[in-house]
Amino acid sequence: MKLYSLGLLIVIILFDQSRADLFSFKPSSNRNDFDDKCFCKLREEVDDCECKIESIDKLNNYQVHPRINTIVQKDYFRFIKLNLNKICQFWTDDARCSLKDCHVKSCNQDDLPASFRNIINQQDENDKKDNNKNKKVVQAQAENCEQSNPLGHINSSLSDESIKAFEDMKKYDDAQDNFCEPDDETHAQAEYLDLVLNPERFTGYKAPHAHKIWNSIYRENCFENTDRIAYGPEKNTCLEKRFFYRLVSGLHTSINVHLSARFLHKGLLDQADVWGPNPEEFKKRFDPETTNGLGPQWLKNLYFIYLVELRALAKVAPYLEKETFYAGRSQVEDEEAKFAVLDLLKTIKNFQYHFNETRLFRGNPIEAKTLKEEFQTKFRNITRIMDCVGCDKCRLWGKVQTLALGTSLKILFSGKISSDNANSKNSFQLTRTEIVALFNGFARLSNSIAEIENFRELLSRSTTETKTILKNQSKIDL
Fold it and tell me: Which residues bind FAD (predicted)?
């Protein structure tokens, strides 16, 4: 264990050092006007937080990013069970993307680690046992019915209605903590998906249907239908509503950064297509001139959601430190995964400028409770909208990242985690799917922040220099 742990630590340190040239925090002497326009707000503090963006860049690009990327490659974190075939609840014209890059590759059972195959087999076995058990219970009840003494008998049986009522009560209690509507993993259409083999990148899925998704999220499921809620004259809007909007905006920004960083460049003549960063796509999505001046603030909101999920990981660290992260394909890999998680959590806990969630949902208890319930309802709707995405790969990553954010909110606001009981599984529970989504969703945010620094470098150079860098970067499937 110590030998593998030491090896992994050396790899992480070397990776940290190798990124130093790429992620320089000293202003480049040849920064152009675009840097002043697009990245101007990245020299400030994160809104409603006492943390400078520069501090987040240093933490993420040097320490967190290499560590979280190592973790999500491990078997425990790369497989997730989701139902990508759920019916859209909001409209019927959810046209499916027919482009090959939209499709998701499903996992064959033989490709899964042992622990996941065991879960599938156990579910099948449990179904058979339940059927046999029910038959035996009915037979035993029939045989004992005439022999029992009706005067001394205590009727401990429960009617079907009572059993269902208890199940409904448990679901209701669990739902009070959840900000997402989780997929039923026992559903016939739920399947394991390999997130490494299905990376998030540009697929060609675009307007008008993609715009319909985000319009529905912003116009119908945010507290206000305007960007002005988060800043400007309306900044006196209550903190909770600003918080909600910035989370959604930050998630949207992160996705747009991914799509710009993993763009498909068509090869000329006999040259193969390559994946790599597209500075022009990034400019189109964030240039103030093409976004009514809002692009820089959108980039800033990315750092806000990053701080929120970072805080969730710090808060739930005592719980996660008790997990084994067992996948079963290799004992060595399982030990490496455990060590890598502990190493990341230690790094995160040492950060000094965490988001303070205790500032939210305060004041009048009744009003705070009502606002929190409205908050949960709106976010659950957003998770349901992900079932309306027409591109399978976009739907996969949309579900993963909204589940990650929902899990973070559950950690921060369930009221069941404190410094005294965070390691008690009787008071707080996370499913394996929630844990996998939490780490992969945070990895996406971490990657986006790292890519922003890359785009700053690319956009600060001359056209010739940029083409040379892109040619070298595109040799690697990002």
Answer: 201, 203, 214, 249, 252, 285
Considering Cα of 217, then 223, then 226, then 231, what sign does the dihedral take?
A: negative
What distance lies between CA 51 and its chain's CA centroid?
A: 22
Is 311 within any annotated ligand binding site?
no
238 in active site: no
Confirm whether 139 is domain-assigned.
no
Instruction: Provide the domain limits for residue 301.
Output: 32-104+166-473
Q: Is residue 130 part of a domain?
A: no
Q: What is the DSSP letter of 96?
A: P
pLDDT in tens, 342-358: 999 999 999 999 999 99
**Token pair belonging to 153:** 């008998």
User: Which phi and psi (to 5°) does residue 194 adopt?
Assistant: -95, 110
Phi and psi dihedrals of 203, rounded to 5?
-115, -10
Question: What does the alpha-carbon distance between residue 237 and residue 219 come to, in Å, rounded to a whole number?
Answer: 17
Answer whether residue 141 is part of any domain: no
Q: Is 306:449 a contact under the CB 8 Å cutoff?
A: yes
DSSP state of 52: B
The answer to the question of whether 285 is labelled as a binding residue is: yes
Rounded distance between C-alpha atoms, residue 452 and residue 53, angstroms: 12
| Residues 450-476 pLDDT 10s | 999 999 999 887 555 656 655 665 554
Overall domain count for the chain: 1
Within a domain: 212: yes
Catalytic residue among 38, 180, 388, 391, which? Answer: 391
Active site residue 388: no
Q: Judge whether 214 is annotated as a binding position.
A: yes
3-state SS, one letter per residue, for 193-217: EECCCCCCCCCCCCCCHHHHHHHHH
CA–CA separation, 142 vs 147, rounded Å?
Answer: 10
Tell me if 17 sits within 8 A of 274, measured CB to CB: no
Q: Which of 124-128, 203-207, 250-254, 371-375 has the highest mean pLDDT?
A: 250-254
Instruction: Confirm whether residue 203 is marked as ligand binding.
Output: yes
Strand partners of residue 33: none
